Every structure is written in C-alpha cells, then in structure tokens.
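Customer ticket, subject: "Can you confirm the structure for DNA-binding MarR family transcriptional regulator?"

Message body: Hello, I'm evaluating your service for our small team and ran a test protein. I'd like someone to confirm that this is what the system normally returns, since I don't have a reference to compare against.
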Amino acid sequence: MDKSDLLTLDNQLCFALYACAREVTKLYRPFLDELGITYTQYVTLLALWEKDGVPVKELGARLYLDSGTLTPLLKKLEAMSLIRRERDPADERSVLVRLTDEGRAMKEQAVTIPERFFCQMNLPLEEFTALRDQLRKLTSAVHESTCGTQES
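Agent reply: Thanks for trying us out. I re-ran your input and got the following:
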C-alpha cells in the first residue's frame, strides 16, 4: 500500500467498524422503539436475561462499558421499572443488578427481535455467523492488547 493511501477513510478499519455498527444499530431501532428502549438498554437487558443478579462491575465488563456510561444507563432502566439495584448482602461494597418482573416480562416481547433483524440482513446465515465470530475474535484481541495498559 502506498503511504498516501494509509490515511484514506476507506482504508481505516476503525471507520468500517464504526459505520457498520451505526447501520446495524439503525436496523434494530424500529424493534426497540416498540419496546420503548434504546440499543444500549437492549444489550444490557440481553446480558441480564442471560444471567440475572450480577454485580455492576461484572455487567460493565460483559458489555464493555465503564461506570460513567453504565451508571446512568442503569438509573434509566431502574426508572423504567425494568431493573433494581441493591447492595450484595455478602459484600456491602458490591451492587447487584436484578431484573424486575417487568424486566423479565419484556424478554417475551423481545424474543422475536433477533429473527426480525436477521430477515433484514442481506447475508446468508453462514456468512452472518462467520462475520459475528470474526468480530468477537477481533474484539477479544483488541481488548487483550489494551486492557493491561489502561488505568483502572
């Protein structure tokens, strides 16, 4: 690659990922609007539907969100009566995030979203799955190369 091509927008992995993430999130919007939640609230609920009653710190790590982003998000979900935060009786320093009955019930409303989303994609299932797996691998590689160098 010619040095002059190094800084062209179309040659940037970061921009390709950014643009793709925005477009994918845009496809989710109508489904999430039906539930009255944002994409970030959706992925938070997905994590809690998978494993309820988790410490805030563990939830943040699972979602790759820092506390400055996660705390307002959790406050909003709590105000919507979808979750509750409570001190861990085993460790008062830790706050647990638990789904409410309304939060658990929303799972039934959301169960069709993955299929509805996939139907909008113009990718065969094999390519979709391969791409998802590659993105997970990339995320893991980037996280492992940077997590030890960031300040806590």
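A couple of notes from the result: The first strand starts at residue 54 and ends at 55. The domain at 15-121 is CATH 1.10.10.10 (Arc Repressor Mutant, subunit A). Feel free to reply with more questions.
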